[in-house]
Amino acid sequence: MLSPVTDNLDASGAFCSSPGAIEQVRYGCSLGALASVIAIPGAVPITHCGPGCATKQFHALSGINAYQGGEFHVPSSNLGNQEVIFGGADRLDELIRSTLKVMQADLFVVQSGCIPGLVGDDVGSVVRSYQKQGVPIVFAETSGYRGNNFTGHETVIRAIIDQFVDVNDAPLQHGLVNVWSLLPYQNPFWRGDLTEIKRILEGVGLEVNILFGPSSAGVEEWRAIQRAQFNLVLSPWLGLATAAHLEDLYGQPFLHVPTIPIGAKATSAFLRQVVDFAGLDRARAEAFIAQEEKEHYVYLRDFASFYAGCTSQYRLPSTAIVVSESAYNLAVASFLVEQLGLNPGPMVISENPPADFRETIQKSYRALADGAGAEAVFEQDGHRIHELIRQTDLTGEVPIVFGSTWEAALADEIGAPLVEIGYPCTDEVVLSRAYVGYRGALALIERTYTTVVRASTMG
Amino acid sequence: MVLNLKNPQVETRDQRLGTITQWDGRADQLVRDSVFTYGCSKGCDNGGRRLCEQSSPFQQASMCAEHIAVTNATIIQESVVVQHSPIGCAASQSFTARYYRDLAARRGWKLEDPKSICTNLGEQDMVFGGVERLEQTIRDAFERHDPRVIFVATSCATGIIGDDVDGAAKRVEDEIGIPVVTLHCEGFKSKHWSSGWDVIEHGILRRLVPHAPQRQPDLINVIHLGGPDVFSPLLNPLGLRVNLVMGGNTLERLAQMSEAAATVTMCFVLSYLATGLEQEFGVPEVKAPLPYGLDATDNWLRDIARLTGTEDKVEAGIASERARIAPELARLRKALKGKRGFVAAGAAFAHGLLADLRELGVDVDSAFSFHHDPTTDSGDSQQDSLGHLVDVWGDVPNYTVSPDQHFQAHAALQRARPDFVICRHSGTMAVLAGRMGIPVLPIFYSNDGLGYEGLLTIGRAILRVLPRKRFYDDVAAHSSFPYQPWWLAETDPYAAIAEPA
């Protein structure tokens, strides 16, 4: 038998199910998509699972991951021996009934975990009886063994669209867009990033259903999904299934931009692409872009004096090693290589993207900076990721690592500073900081070079 | 009560001790009901009421035994933990790594990430079983890290599909020649997460403590939840060396537990190990009430001195420690006078903090315990920590037992309206209190309140958080919880959930 640790191909070929044993875990399970529900203002998950499942997922994705906080008082059936033996559907019914008496929400999302999946609870029929009474409640099957929190995220979204968003004859609203981008909580910077994405899209004349986070209007945005002119998928693959589904349902077209833009060059190009796709007023968009760039490049001009002047004093890095889920990996790698002029080191994509998308993702890397030699590696096991980086020849280079807490020891070992950009991110406290768009790029530069200077001056 | 160490699965605390997780009333009533139900050696008269658990149809996410067992296996040095589970159970790895690195920094260990690997079971494994993958992962763990012990933890999923985890562990153990210790910790098997302590302690007792020990008469085992060594300063003056176990340790420390002169447990929730050491190896368990508060600390030291033959040194130590802390204790009592506290923690630990607060002169009439053990494994009434608290310090009129339920904690705090909260398991309670405008002191390292110095540690820490009321009031005024208005006003944690929505 092939070793599950040494063979990284899932023999089953199942969609994101199990790529083998994993050391230094970099994502949650399907049930972890409860974080996506919590990310929707006004929505509350109801979890039908063991007593520790929901807490463990949210504590990992939010509590210890950049200390993001978030509304965690999640109803849970806390299944025990009795439900494992006799089934837990009755217990779920009792939980939903009492939840409606104690809590208030605009939308409840029932999520099942491993236990009901294995003992065969008919969760759907329990939930349907509440739907028939007009309760805003949906059911998403998120058994932990069925996938990770990325696939669980799409399962939850699909449940809300299919079971909650009414199909009606509401008029299409030209200039309204639904944005499907970063995975909430998994990415520590999602709140600030989504806010910046919304800001720049509004800047060129769109109205935005950002759908998650503090800048979202919450459940009412979800009700307005159908009215949107189009869907914007701003990530290498996450959200594509949702956009395709919405195209089937409502005939909504979608624009897929795999690279979340960081920095003026990429952001302006992205905005022009959106403007063309949506047929927006170009003059208005160009005026916004010009204003943003004017301010942005004042800062880059000033940063140039540090970047040029301190290159040898602080051993400014020359090669970027990026370990992250694909959305941030591609975004950050593109910025570092194309806009700051770093060499691409190992680029490790750690969320086990579905096999169908890997070739397209790889092409995005190969196209960076006219073939600077960037190459993505798909690997989710920390031990193998670190071996791969150790084996990379970095002769003559000054490396810097963009990764997770798991890369801290490795970065020390190879003498590189570490900028935490992904889960788990235990050494950053993040609130509204963004790393994408115009403004986020400046914050990313600040964080990166503060880290570099400190590594140099404080050992 | 005899612990059964032959079976790889520990008998749950629900079965052994009659643990409950839901109750509300006067602490003295809970003591009497527990004693009546589980045996009274004091000849008390309680009117014949048996311990009766409450219930609520509404529940919120809690914690599970697997989390406790796996965390405390992972922080054992030179170990690898294999979590035989779908990926979600291993989400705690990042927390555990942070915890380990913090412990390492505080205890002077090598700074490194602890090692754990998840078999990452998928749907296919649910159908065909995951035993082969488990065996290979154990081999890989051995190849990768050259550990001295490998723990294999089960999960709800593997418990339900019935993987023969013990068989797999045994087969690979024979191949690789190091102990492969199984931890049966399916979350659904016990209604309280503290059963996870029993699981890891059962595994240690069964596999990592050698028989035929040589006694070390000056060695005393100290079983604690985790954190800095606050015990050596208390026990070294008696000529005793501390063997600090649980909460992160070396395999040598675990192995020499059977050689010690006695065992003390800093929280009776963890006393399975101490009871097991007495039963299997004849290492006596110190049963005196825990050293929270001045008199209890005196008596605890005296009991240790009695068991270790060091009575000649103990009174001098007690006198000098009391004298040392007296001026600062007086300052703290003055500063805390008139303040009203609220304690939220797990059973014996909560009882200890209550004693500390009362010793510090804080008014505390409300407490929130995450579970309640009506008895302990030793069955010795000295370990009735709640009974001891009530005897020494008086009743706690509002005593709630709840497995960290946010909605019940909200009601309990509405009822108590304290000036501050002191709590453990900061996930629910700390942020709840803060957002209700109540300053909160979360205790991560549970040794903070122990002994003479602990009174100063806790008192000073409370004074440090009180000014944060300015921040919490501001947040409280600008945020709300998604409960129905009637529940937001509710002050009974177990109020019937019958109101219309």
UniProtKB/TrEMBL annotation, chain A:
Residue ranges occupied by any Nitrogenase/oxidoreductase component domain in the UniProt entry: 31-452
Organism: Rhodopseudomonas palustris
InterPro entries per record: ChlB/BchB/BchZ (IPR050152), Nase/OxRdtase_comp1 (IPR000510)
GO molecular function: oxidoreductase activity
SUPFAM superfamilies tied to this protein: Helical backbone' metal receptor
Pfam families found in the cross-reference section: Oxidored_nitro
Identification of the protein by name: Hydrogenase
Automatic annotation (TrEMBL), chain B:
Stretches assigned to coiled coil: none
InterPro entries: Nase/OxRdtase_comp1, NifE-like
Record Gene3D superfamilies: Nitrogenase molybdenum iron protein domain (3.40.50.1980)
Pfam family, one: Oxidored_nitro
GO molecular function: oxidoreductase activity
Domain of life, source organism: Bacteria
Domain Nitrogenase/oxidoreductase component: start-end pairs: 64-465
Cross-referenced PANTHER family: NITROGENASE IRON-MOLYBDENUM COFACTOR BIOSYNTHESIS PROTEIN NIFE
Protein name according to UniProt: Nitrogenase
Organism whose genome encodes this protein: Rhodopseudomonas palustris
